[in-house]
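tool=predict chain=A
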Amino acid sequence: QVQLVESGGGLVQAGESLTLSCAASGPTYSPYDMGWFRQAPGKEREFVAAISWSAVRSVYTDSVKGRFTISRDNAKNLVSLQMDSLKPEDTALYYCAADYARVAGPPTDRHEYHYWGQGTQVTVSS
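tool=predict ok
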């Protein structure tokens, strides 16, 4: 079973950057697709970005395209989310998620992910 631990959240001003990290542990990390989701107070958990196990495919929600970059290092069991030009509307609890690799590429539906971290808070002030 995969265990996920997020880190790197914090309080920043609009326009600044943060890098979130997700450390994975377990017997078989490499064959998992990985995703980042976020949840703001009073809102549903929403998809942010995902990357295939081979890192060949990545996908983003429209609101973060061009500002966020997802990457992974399978040798280090790490997935990162580089967030640039942050906006107040990016404020949320950010979660890392994992699920078994798919030929079709990483899923964007949170219900398709079996493993989740505890989340790391990102707060962007205006």
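The CA atoms of residues 6 and 22 lie 4 Å apart. The first strand starts at residue 3 and ends at 7.
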